[in-house]
Design goal:
- With 383 residues, this protein is of the alpha/beta class.
- It folds into 2 domains: 200 residues, Rossmann fold (3-Layer(aba) Sandwich); 173 residues, Glycogen Phosphorylase B (Rossmann fold).
- It contains 16 helices and 13 strands.
- Helix 15 packs antiparallel against helix 16.
- The two termini are 23 Å apart.
- Pfam families: Glycos_transf_1 (PF00534).
- It comes from Sphingomonas crocodyli.
């Protein structure tokens, strides 16, 4: 078994999709790799079809979230029929249902589910159902890479970590590539002006807690501008624009900049990167900011941000849902009291080699039998 299939739910701008495209190309140096998108819509459609790997979009057009997954699962099952046994790597939590359903009742294709977002969010029934779903995925998988230290602390993964089915993986970026992309021309005039820019990165979703950052920016005493990079629907964009206007952030202080294929051109010129997320696994954007030396403010709720920033040694942390605390942290980071990330990014280089080593251990087992796959992963985690 030498084929690797890397699966993503869609091609909208996100860290998961960027990671998947980069990893597919990296693994294609040695293996037959196909990047499969359940739905071909999104900002990274063109990038997904470039490089050494093959690319397949199973479905086109928008549907409800549940219908999207069911439709993609049926299409994926048909696409897999008759193919040689493969290692299927599902890259993001949003998409795991599709390969699970597509392979239901079959062990022909071994499944790897990469868990990249927090499971325990304190949201009652939904959280309980999410836990049941995660246990189902663990039982179905030959390996479960956990992105970041925060996820690895969740008791739900304890048994899988102990027997080697789960493996902790760090987020990371290619530092040389980050610094090269940072040299691109300035993407917006604000970045070349004297008023400091506070930059946030992430889809316009409740998880990212952009509304807290808007409230905090309205409280700071010094002139500053807020830019949010990330995709969202027209309704979401309208909501955040209204929130900003209501908070007192005028058009010359607030910008929804949309999606980009080069976050480093923005990060390297911003005075501050803010990560106010309510939950994360391990934020790639946080490490991207460190890679180009941008000062950071991060929520203690944002996954392993506290670990990455070494409890405040490489950036400021604040208590999660307090706009006043966030405002104070922003003001400190825009002052001569700034805490800079220094060389911290050197500890978070690209994880692609580690992922490829994991996949090659699984491929070396030459069978989809769970016992031999589990032994291979256990050997990797003990190295």
């Amino acid at each position: 078994m030498t084929d690797i299939i890397i699966y993503v739910h869609d091609l909208r701008s996100s860290g998961v999709v960027r990671d998947a495209i980069r990893l597919a190309d990296h693994c294609a140096e040695r293996h037959r790799v196909t990047l499969v998108a359940g739905h071909g819509d999104g900002f990274f459609r063109e990038a997904a079809g470039q490089g050494r790997h093959d690319f397949v979009a199973l479905c086109e057009g928008c549907r409800s979230p549940v219908a999207m997954k069911l439709h993609a699962a049926a299409a994926f099952r048909r696409w897999l029929a008759g193919r040689r046994p493969s290692l299927i790597v599902s890259m993001g939590n949003m998409g795991h249902a599709t390969p699970f359903l597509a392979c239901l009742g079959s062990r022909r294709h071994a499944r790897v589910y990469r868990i990249s977002n927090e499971i325990a969010r304190g949201d009652g029934l939904r959280g309980a159902l999410r836990t049941i779903w995660m246990k189902t995925l663990i039982a179905d998988a030959v390996s479960v890479p956990l992105v970041g230290a925060a996820l690895a602390r969740n008791p739900i993964f304890a048994e899988a970590l102990a027997d080697g089915r789960a493996v902790e993986m760090r987020s990371g970026v290619d530092l040389a590539e980050a610094r090269d992309k940072a040299k691109a021309p300035s993407p917006h005039r604000w970045l070349d002006e004297d008023v400091p820019v506070v930059l946030a990165i992430g889809r316009l979703r409740p998880q990212k807690n952009h509304e807290l950052l808007i409230a905090a920016m309205a409280r700071i005493d010094r002139p500053a501008r807020l830019v949010i990079l990330g995709g969202g629907s027209e309704e979401e964009r309208a909501r955040y624009t209204t929130l900003a206007a209501t908070a007192g952030l005028s058009d010359d202080r607030f910008l929804l900049a949309g999606e980009t294929d080069n976050v480093f051109a923005w990060l390297s010129r911003a005075q501050l990167f803010a990560l106010p997320s309510r939950w994360e696994g391990s934020s790639v954007a946080l490490i991207e900011a460190m890679a180009v030396g941008t000062p950071i403010v991060a929520s203690t709720l944002a996954g392993d941000a506290g670990v990455v920033l070494d409890n405040g040694r490489y950036g400021r942390l604040f208590g999660g849902e307090d706009p006043d605390a966030l405002a104070r942290a922003v003001e400190d980071q825009l002052s001569d009291r700034v805490i800079r990330p220094g060389d911290r990014a050197s500890a978070y280089g690209s994880p692609d080699d580690a992922y490829r080593a994991l996949f090659e251990q699984l491929l070396a087992a030459k069978t989809v039998d769970e016992s031999s796959m589990t032994r291979a992963v256990a050997e990797l985690s003990s190295n």
